[in-house]
Amino acid sequence: MDAAVVELADRIRALLGGAGEIEERGMFGSRAFLSEGRILVGARKGGTLLVRVGAERAAVLLTEPGVARAVMGARTMSENWLDVAPEVVSDDRGLMEWIDLAREDAGAA
Fold first, then answer.
1. Residue 18 has what pLDDT?
2. How far is it, in rounded angstroms, from Cα 84 to Cα 68?
3. Of 38, 8, 9, 11, which is closest to residue 23 (Cα–Cα)?
4. Distance from CA of residue 47 to its chain's centroid?
5. Helix (H, G, I), strand (E, B) or coil at 66
6. Which one-letter DSSP state was computed for residue 85?
7. Phi, psi (rounded to 5 degrees) for 22
8. Percent of the chain having pLDDT more than 70?
């Protein structure tokens, strides 16, 4: 894992505040944060945030600067998976907004 992954994972962990329902796992060279066995967010190469949201919300969020459909290797992920550029989550307020979006959609699933 690169230093940006470690730093972003540390920030996510701190913002989640040791929430008991959150599990952390290393996956594909990144750190994933799961709730009830489902990935909410992940810290990816270069400090990119991986976010899982509902398809309808994803369609709206894709219009935001710095947000794109997630790509893993040569594969584009389903519409529920977004990559959020490091500059979008450079402060804790912005990062927490994305974590909250993922939690809201996970609760509705």
1. 64
2. 7
3. 38
4. 10
5. coil
6. -
7. -95, 130
8. 94
Q: What is the rounded distance in angstroms from the CA atom of residue 6 to the CA atom of residue 73?
A: 20
Q: Is 104 left (phi over 0), alpha (psi -120 to 50) or beta?
A: alpha
What the block records as the tokens of 68 is 């794109």
> What's the pTM?
0.90
Name residue 106's amino acid: A
CATH code for 3-108? 3.90.1150.30
Q: Determine the pLDDT at residue 27.
A: 80
Distance of CA 40 to the CA centre of its chain: 6
Phi and psi torsions of 60, nearest 5° = -75, -45
Report the distance separating Cα 90 and Cα 2, nearest Å: 17
**pLDDT tens digits, residue range 11-58?**
999 998 765 678 888 887 789 999 888 889 999 999 999 999 999 999
Q: How far apart are CA 73 and CA 7, in angstroms?
A: 22
Per-residue pLDDT, 26? 86
